[in-house]
Design goal:
Rossmann fold; globular; 14 strands; 3-stranded mixed sheet; 489 residues; binds zinc ion; 13% strand
């Protein structure tokens, strides 16, 4: 059920010059978010934290007492949530809500005192307490922000806000294409151009002439250069007024703001306060497509047999490369190979593809694939992930209560976080996803629609050790002799 009497908590920033502006903006953004979520805000609590970090004994929501930072606004919010007078909390971000681990713990206690939990949302998305993983993350973030990196964290956060608010992108002085100067309003005409660019890149536009359409497949899409030329021909204005180029077309569509995401230094850091012009999933597909096209020197993606072929002379893996006769795989000396074995890419890819399709028509192989797509590995990874997240939680607690020094905490945390990352990667790894979607439909036609990267995942599941490639055999002239390809177990 959506909160009908939520409280919006805004906090006066430490940055004196920014005060009034900061509060007004926090409230505006908060109300905007409430509208989007369908929440009703019954009260706005403005907290002035000029007395931050001074502690005294106060009464807690559960009736006990404790030593806490003096924060009357925050405390009143906790009391109201605990009593049921307010039924949801909307804040700007984690940093503005709880900088002291004890404040966060009190908030968590209140949120968890009801079933279902009291809903908590934040404009930046950094404050989430919807489940145990969210809570662990919040604890770690507060613990970090509260200690040595507090100032850095605040500076970075402030920079995000500035960038988002002013619509400045990557330090450039211009507004983002598609958005008004304050970065919050979508400019409809420009948004339409962005949607068009995305569709043309994906090969799904309906504005091409039949002749143009014939040259474009869903797989290749339209080149940025060709799109730029067409925008120029139609007199479409760019954000800066400069003529469109392949580069600027790629740049405007590649901005995460287009998908309603906020990024900092090229990293997406969360959902933005503005609405997406292109849905996130679709935008990511467009970016993937562009990344694949850009990788003309890196053949890892296009040459999907990379990693599956081995030289029969020296056992070295063959690498996809450009040779005299076009793309080929060879035992490159640069990578430590013998340089003696090479094979034209299209020959060997066609042959492997033929074999894969044959395998995909075999019930026994399909059974094997189904097993690979749904192994216990993911179950184990899930369990490990939960355990590690619990450990992170304990760790943050120990540090907050000074049982651990910062150096110890940091070291222990980095070890556990590396494991968490690994388990997460395992859970979302491509192979199970690709296999699952492949097995869900007609396998053979599904294979044909796969990207090179996905084809490689399927091949690795079918034939984990790959093939050994024998030397060229003169008796076949220039033709490829399939016998050169020896499957390895
Ligand atoms: Zn070799």
């Amino acid at each position: 059920m959506l909160p009908t009497r939520a409280v919006l908590l805004v906090r006066i920033s430490d940055d004196k010059a920014q005060d009034a502006k900061g509060v007004a903006r926090q409230e505006e953004d908060g109300r905007h978010l409430a509208d989007r979520l369908g929440w009703t805000i019954a009260e706005v609590v403005i907290e002035n934290d000029t007395s931050a970090y001074k502690r005294r004994t106060i009464k807690l929501p559960d009736g006990s007492t404790g030593l806490r930072t003096v924060r009357p606004g925050f405390r009143s919010v906790l009391d109201k949530l605990a009593s049921g007078e307010r039924d949801g909390l909307l804040a700007y971000d984690l940093d503005r809500t709880a900088r002291d681990p004890r404040d966060l713990e009190d908030l968590i206690d209140v949120v968890e005192s009801r079933r279902p939990r009291i809903p908590v949302e934040s404009v930046s998305g950094s404050l989430r307490l919807a489940n145990d993983a969210d809570i662990t993350m919040a604890r770690v973030m507060v613990a970090i922000a509260n200690k040595s990196s507090r100032d850095t964290a605040r500076r970075v956060a402030r920079k995000h806000e500035e960038l988002a608010k002013e619509g400045k992108w990557n330090g450039g002085g211009f507004r983002g294409y598609g958005f008004s100067t304050d970065g919050h309003q979508v400019v409809p005409a420009e948004a339409a151009i962005l949607v068009e660019i995305g569709s043309r890149i994906l090969g799904e536009w309906d504005g091409w002439t039949p002749e143009q359409r014939a040259k474009i497949t869903e797989e290749t899409g339209e080149s940025l250069h060709s799109i730029a030329e067409d925008l120029e021909r139609r007199g479409v204005a760019s954000a800066t007024g400069a003529p469109w180029s392949a580069r600027s077309v790629g740049s405007v569509i590649g901005k995460s703001s287009v998908a309603g995401l906020r990024s900092y230094k090229g990293e997406v850091v969360g959902k933005a306060v503005w609405d997406p012009i292109i849905p996130e999933d679709r935008w990511r597909r467009i970016c993937e497509r562009l990344a694949m096209r850009a990788g003309t020197t890196d053949l890892t993606l296009q040459r999907w047999l990379n990693g599956s072929l081995h030289c029969s002379r020296c056992e070295h893996p063959l690498e996809g490369a450009f040779g005299n006769g076009g793309p080929r795989y060879w035992c490159a000396p640069k990578g430590g190979g013998c340089g003696k074995i090479a094979v034209k890419a299209s020959f060997i890819e066609d042959e492997v593809e033929r074999q894969v399709l044959e395998l995909l028509g075999t019930p026994r192989v399909l059974e094997q694939l189904r097993h690979a797509a749904d192994t216990e590995v993911t179950g184990d990874a899930r369990k490990e992930l939960a355990e590690d997240e619990e450990q992170l939680k304990q760790l943050a607690k120990m540090w907050a209560s000074k049982e651990l020094g910062f150096a110890e905490y940091r070291e222990a945390r980095s070890i556990i976080e590396a494991r968490v990352k690994e388990s997460r990667a395992l859970l979302v790894s491509r192979a199970p996803r690709v296999l699952r979607s492949l097995l869900a439909g007609d396998v053979q036609s599904g294979w044909i629609g796969l990207t090179p990267a996905d084809k490689r995942e399927v091949l690795l599941a079918l034939l984990p050790s790959g093939y050994r490639v024998l030397p060229h055999d003169r008796s076949h002239g220039n033709k490829f002799n399939p016998a050169r390809l020896v499957p390895l177990d």
